[in-house]
Amino acid sequence: MVWLQKGYLWGVTGLADSLFLSLKKLDGYELINMETCTRCAVCAHSCPAYAVTKDDYAVPAWKSVEFRKLLNRQRGFLSAILGQRPVPREWLRNISTKGLYMCTLCGRCMPGCVFTIQNLELWEVLRSIIHEEGEASPNLLKVAGSLEKNMNPYDRDHTERLSWVKEMALKGVKEGQRAKTLYYVGCTSSYQEQTIASSTANILSRMNEDWSLFGKDEWCCGDPHIAVGDQDKAEEFAKHNLEVASSLGASRIVTSCAHCYRMWKWKYPKIIGRHSLEVLHTTEYLQECLKSGALKLDKKLPSRVTYHDPCYLSRLGGVVDEPRNILNSVAETIVEMKERKFDTFCCGGGAMTEAADQELWTKIGNERLRQAEIIKPEFMVSGCPFCRRSLTQAAQRSGSQTQVLDITELVAKQLKD
Amino acid sequence: MLDLMQIFDFTRSVLPLVTLVVFITGVMLRLTKWASLSFPRHDRPRGKSNRLIGAIKNWSIDMIPPWDLAGRVEPVAYVVGIAMHVTCILILLGALHAASVQNIIDLPFTQSRLRLPMIPASNIPVAIPRTLLTYVITPIFLSTLGILILRRVYCNLRGGPLKALTRKEDWVAAPLLWSAGFTGFLAVVAVEPHMPILTLHLILTQAFIMYLPYSKLIHSATVFLVRTWSGFRRAIYGV
Fold this sequence. Notes:
The structure holds 2 protein chains of 2 kinds.
Chain A: H1 2-5, E1 18-19, H2 28-36, H3 48-53, H4 60-75, H5 77-82, E2 87-88, H6 89-100, H7 109-112, H8 119-132, H9 138-150, H10 163-167, E3 181-184, H11 187-191, H12 194-206, E4 211-213, H13 223-228, H14 231-247, E5 252-255, H15 258-272, E6 278-281, H16 282-292, E7 301-307, H17 321-330, E8 331-335, H18 353-356, H19 358-373, E9 379-382, H20 385-398, E10 403-406, H21 407-414
Parallel strand pairs in A: 3-4, 3-5, 5-6, 7-8, 7-9, 9-10
Antiparallel strand pairs in A: 1-2
Helix pairs in contact in A: 4-6, 4-8, 6-8, 12-21, 14-15, 16-17, 17-21, 19-20
Chain B: H1 4-12, H2 14-35, H3 51-58, H4 67-71, H5 75-92, H6 95-106, H7 111-114, H8 132-158, H9 161-165, H10 170-188, H11 194-211, H12 219-237
Helix pairs in contact in B: 1-11, 2-11, 3-12, 5-8, 8-10, 10-11
């Protein structure tokens, strides 16, 4: 029966350039979601990548169509009767070079779909299949190389991870010590957007929190691994981080990064099983402090402030009210963009797009800034270092007067002496 | 040479059995395909709200696709798409079709019914009352589905995302449904000669049923799962 299963009945030639895919990462839920797509193209209108490129390959359903084509070689109706057929490598290359990475994994196509198909997991599985077969984006493979070597995606030495503590001259910051609350800084705040890390550290200290940093044992949360498609490595990093948190006796994790938040809160339980840690984004933590009266703020800023919801915190994380409650205590005028809350528009920073496709990253960042400038804010505040980076760069490129800040920076500025 | 009456009899006697076999085979193959993959129970933290409420919400107030995402870009396709699906469901649930399904289901088990003409039948009025279903809902269904087919033709000529997504199957599924609907409409309003149109309607309808589990039309079944699961997910994540 092997000859039947391997599709020799099909008279397949050129097997050297064809392969049988491992579909172990794909589950039945995802398959049914995929098979529900009717190729109506409605999702195109919600996709930030399509909005800025108008490239047909950026349409979310294109990936779904191509994925189904791959799958049908091994799981199609004819394969059920006549045996599986190998997938031509060319098809994988086609997906990899055309549309797979023209996506920030922001998940806006899910509410945009008339059936609410859960596309995000599908794209993650497709990335993992492409990666497994050695056809991943070369740019993302560089990111994977850095993660392997340095435990961060930015090709910066692991020993520099805590350099921001010295650079910002922070005092009394505990590193890798037992504490009730652990601040998981994340790679982007540790290496690129360090003011977010220092602001959060300041706030935690001012709240008299029993807290510590993970210290030198903090590894990347694994989110970039998922963008690359290496789910096994994501699992390895998740296990490591969780072990460190357990060894430090923490009962909760606070993070200022929306991507890390989603990993800790929603992905880790899925990847490695449920954990007992309470996971809070800084906005949730700040709201808690605000409610308890621990957070005392100066007079409200007499400025127009808008909040950019990070996709991974709002649509994929479920946190939309907390940052707004905090901003209401910090600034006098809060103005809202049209694309907000669960319908937020991506900043371009997700899925390591800056590394994978810089042009796309730039275009989406520019578009988001343009959307903000319609309502003329003085400050554009977000809750994620990726958003801060993408939007700051967009503002610099266009010479915009809008100042991009993280919510922790704004709160740290307004803390009462 | 087969005469029309023989073909008509065939569409009510043997063809339904063939349809049933092909349909069930398709469903079995589809289920086998799904069953070849695992359905893991993921560990998730306690959800922000109740999963059942999430599913109900996803099947009620969140049922209409968000205007902001799709409607503002393609308002015609948006309104037409909703109208087509609603009228299609109403027609399928119409009394005539409910009775037809009943007859088809009974066919293999009740020989006496094998010879009972489905339409016109003793238990079903020959001339369906000229009701809302016939003169309002069906024309809306046919015109909206027609617009959606033309939209795909237009987009394929003009280019754009719909062209990139169109596959051969798309030129079968919707036109087949439209043809079945159109012949059914003509049969009901009794365009003369009545018999050939009714025969054609029965053939097209059964072709549609046979094709359903093998094609994208399967979304008519999977949508129940997908919407419920996404409702669960939205409740868990609080979105």
